[in-house]
Amino acid sequence: MVLFAFLLLLGATFVAYALNRRAAISIRANGTQLHSLESFHGLFAALTVLVPVLVGILIWLVLEGTVVDWVMIRSLPEGTFDDLGSGASQLIVAEIKSIAGGRVFGTPEPWKTEAAERLVAYNRIADWVLVALVAVSAAMLLWFARRSVAAQFRARQSAERIVLGLMVFCAVAAIFVTIGIVFALTFETIKFFQVVPVTEFLFGTSWEPQIPIREDQVAAEGAFGAVPVFLGTIVISTVALFIAIPVGLMTAIYLNEFANRRIRSAVKPVLEILAGVPTVVYGFFAVLTVAPAIRSFAASIGVDVAPNTALAAGGVMGIMLIPFISSFADDALSAVPRSLRDGALALGATRGEMMVNVLFPAAIPGIVGGILLAVSRAIGETMIVVMAAGLIAKMTINPLDSVTAVTVQIVTLLIGDTSFDNPKTLSAFALGMMLFLVTLVINIFALRIVRKYREIYD
Amino acid sequence: MNDMRKIERDAKMAETKITARNVNVFYGETHAIRDVNVDIADKTVTAFIGPSGCGKSTFLRCINRMNDTIDICRVTGDIQLDGTDIYATSVDPVQLRAQVGMVFQKPNPFPKSIYDNVAYGPRIHGLARTKSDMDEIVERALRRGAIWDEVKDRLDQPGTGLSGGQQQRLCIARAVATEPEVLLMDEPCSALDPIATAQVEELIDELRQDYSVVIVTHSMQQAARVSQKTAFFHLGHLVEFNDTDEIFTNPKDPRTESYITGRIG
Questions:
Q1: pLDDT digits (tens, 9 = 90+) for B26-36
Q2: Surface of B (192-251) touching A: CB under 8 A
Q3: Is A358 in contact with B110 (Cβ distance < 8 A)?
């Protein structure tokens, strides 16, 4: 039925376009000068019908389920939910819904079956109401649009205004989503800090988020000191950047200045492929290839290392970041004006001297911007560390030890059956908030450097 | 004034610095320079004039092998500096460019301090052993670039902060700091205002004392003002090469005459 409503709307849109266009053509055929082209009259009508009705349908779909559920619950016998907690009430509603959907387990009470039948009926009514509303509103808008066709009507401006509104909406949507994410994080973080003091979270050196679920359960008291977790992220990111920055920069310098066109045209696409590899594949690479290699090499020189070292996770993450840094640095080097290269070469500088003394310093702001963006990617990277890094938070900076990362902890904390008012779960939001703030600061810093750099050579 | 210069010119018909024979340049399929033969004298200003795209800049860039940096560019023929073929395999273009300095159309100071801009060439060629040596070289170059008095109190400030004319004189100072024998100038005044142009032209006339200067210019007045010899290029050919006075008062080739009277170009 919903599909039918959409098809109806689509049809009305096309009809509106055709009608208005034809009307405009006939006005012109009578010898009157039109203000706007015929196609703009058509476009105006199509947008006038499409946009409001589409928004209406979407709002309806968001609200429909809630309203229908509410009506169904009101129709249940008096006193059904008396003496029941919110969880039990939700269970009853869920059972009725699954009966309505045709999934019957055992023999439900007759009043539940009746309620399910009513639910099905309400849903059918709601669908018909939707179709009827779409038909009526589309017809009204069609009539309104058709009536506005006139020689003097500024259809182009009107259509452009509607499109402008759509663009503004799309642009603003991203901002609102960001704000929404921040709010969601903030509320849960505040809840967490009501249970665990901020100072313990920021400065505590022990991370053991095992909270007894029942009073009588034997479990650790639970400690929420985030320092070792962040330390793990820092160790892994540092290893990653130690690999990515030199290799990425060397790659960029080689491709930009020394490689001939054939090599460049071969290496660039391969780097782009490297940038497009899903991180979960990098995770496999880390677990199955790099970690055992490190372990066996260490064993051969008599060192015993953990199977999931920070070195393996960080190293593979570094490989992931190479194309990121190299393409940023390549762009920055290419943006240095040719006249500076010529100036250095004409003084008798070799290409290497030119690169080191002139191009590189001129490109450094852009390169630093790219590196900072890579840093925030390294900090936020999840899949590789989930697969290749450890789970236990250790207070260590030894890259050959097993460490955990912030993102790993967030993932493991949110997997499982604990309820959302448990500090164990809430701590994931506090970690996420910290991560968000750190990457935000780094990103702002990076963008500022990039912008400053742009001003120099424009 | 003109007459005095003429006398001076005749007195200084110096020995040949650069000899070019049958030089051809190709950009991919395009034949940019066709069979150019020219002798450029020492301690003289030689001007290359001609309409846009006639190949005068391309030929200039052959003299310090800057065309090597363009992948698709190919140079044939023979260019000699003091009797040495500069395209011989034994010649290192990096060393050649230290001998043959170049100044570009747009001032291109490095985003470094004024001091470091000038010291760059001497530094990469190892011309100074001590800091005071370097200070001396920088001061001498800036004086020769006629910009010392304007910048001596702010040598540590960025070269990019100077005005256009000052930047161009800084670039000239940078080019002479490596003690070249030849100075190539590719339209050095086209981005400058008339006052800065006059300063740079005056400077070029002074540089003639020590160097062989080759200047590409779009302005025939400029060629007449600063040069002793003039070469007229047209469509890749060197049409006419003679004393500047001769070219402008008594051109032999009808194409030269059309160009200097403004009928082609």
A1: 998 889 999 99
A2: none
A3: yes
